[in-house]
Amino acid sequence: MNERFFTWNDLVTYGGAVMAVLIITEFTKDLPGIRRIPTRLWAYLVALVLLVPAAVFTADALRAEDILLCLVNGALVAMAAVGSFHTIQEQQE
């Protein structure tokens, strides 16, 4: 049996993408070089790095409109991931 935490099919869902972007952003945002990038922008770049390959690996053919949708969906995913982290952080204070 194939035991994976994430699959490409998980990453093309809203919830899977938000969770992956949240985790990756939080673990990498304080690395040297990345630290200077605003967290919202970094989360957006992480979302694009995940969404575009996920679209490539799960679609029969990747079209130009799919890439454009990844740009928009990346913004939604990044905003949700950053907002989720801030909400969790506020609850702990």
Q: What features would you describe in this structure?
A:
This protein is mainly alpha-helical. It has one domain (8-88). It contains four helices and no strands. It is globular, with a radius of gyration of 14 Å. The mean pLDDT is 89.
Brief characterization of the structure:
The protein is mostly helical and 93 residues long. It has 4 helices and no strands. The protein has one domain.
Q: What structural class do you assign from the helix and strand content? A: mainly alpha
| Low-pLDDT segments, ≥5 res | none
Biggest β-sheet: count, sense, barrel?
A: none
How much of the polypeptide forms β-strand, as a percent range?
under 5%
- As a whole number of angstroms, the C-alpha radius of gyration is 14 Å
* Domain count: 1
Q: How far is the N terminus from the C terminus?
A: 42 Å
Cα shape = globular
Total number of β-strand segments?
0
Which secondary structure elements does this structure contain, and how are they paired or packed?
Layout: H1 8-11, H2 14-28, H3 39-58, H4 64-92
Helix pairs in contact: 2-3, 2-4, 3-4
